[in-house]
Amino acid sequence: MRDGALVRVLRGVYGAPGPSDPPWAAQRHALLARAAALHLVLTGEHWFSHTTAAVLWGCDVASIPRRVHVTSLINPHVRRRQDGAAVAWHWTSAADRATEVSRALTLPVSPLERTAFDCAATLPPGPGLVVADSALRAGADRVLLAEITERAVGRRGVRRAREVLQHADGRAESAGESLTRWAVIAAGLPAPDLQVAVATRLGWRWVDLGWHAERVAVEFDGRVKYGRDRATAARTVFEEKRRQDALEDEGWTVVRVTWPDLADLGTLGDRLSRAFRRAARSGSPR
């Protein structure tokens, strides 16, 4: 540890340090290392769930969780605390165990559909939609999701989960797009379409989400696509400008959303509402 070759993962468990850049990669490595360490030291049947399971399945998350979520058959109130600040305990009955554990991954984990439900029931709606969208994109079964939701009637969070899962759509391509769409939903706007195709002078172009009738396009700009070197970034910015000009030439209003905008989904929703209403009043030619 003194020379940096090892880092403490949990009490008595050490591992190799992960990447330092980008920050999300370092956070993801730390979470997965803690999960692997817990699996080594825990006794009794257990499996990883909630946002930890989402990361293990490769789902998008709005932010990498600091704590590892573990579900077992032991009530957490009587469990010996193992690095309590780093672990969130959940429990379930033996009767539910068969439908709540998957052995498809290296670590025991809740099934993809159960993971999406748990996150939709316990996270704020925007982050819950992020996981649900990416779970559907990864192949989660909508029918099974509906069955899990119905079996959970009466439990805490099921009403929120039902609303989030109702709006989940596997066509969303990033966490930013999902959060932007939740801002639209929370603002009371009509449900937008996703991956909207628009014919332009440059050919067909697709926008993240929007409304054909009002000709409003919403684009999430995550900056990842701009690359690290100046030449790539400059070329990408130029192509994005040409693309936006072509969309606007067809009468479309383009609203661009960035990560800082997602810090306040209410304010973003107000901004999107104003753009939608202006376009609706203008009666843009269809």
Structural description of this entry:
- 44% of the residues lie in helices and 17% in strands.
- It is an alpha/beta fold and 286 residues long.
- The protein starts with 6 loop residues before the first strand and ends with a helix.
Calculate Rg over CA atoms. Answer: 22 Å
Helix content: 40-55%
Spatial order of strands in the largest sheet: 6-7-8-9
Q: Kindly estimate the percentage of residues that lie in beta strands according to DSSP.
A: 15-25%
By helix and strand content, what is the structural category? alpha/beta
Largest sheet: 4 strands, mixed
- C-alpha end-to-end distance: 65 Å
Mass-distribution shape:
globular
Number of strands: 9
Along the chain, the helix and strand elements come as EEHEHEEHHHHHHEEEHEH
Low-pLDDT segments, ≥5 res: none
Query: What's the mean pLDDT score?
Result: 88
> How many separate helices?
10
Summarize the structure.
This protein has ten helices and nine strands. It is an alpha/beta fold and 286 residues long. Helix 5 (125-137) crosses helix 8.
Task: Furnish the topology, listing elements before pairings.
Elements lengths: L6 E4 L2 E3 L7 H19 L4 E3 L1 H7 L11 E5 L14 E5 L2 H7 L11 H11 L2 H13 L4 H10 L6 H10 L7 H12 L6 E8 L2 E9 L4 E6 L8 H20 L3 E6 L6 H18 L4
Parallel strand pairs: 4-5, 8-9
Antiparallel strand pairs: 1-2, 3-4, 6-7, 7-8
Question: Which terms summarize this structure?
Answer:
single chain; 286 residues; alpha/beta; four-stranded mixed β-sheet; three-stranded mixed β-sheet; 10 helices; 9 strands; 44% helix; globular
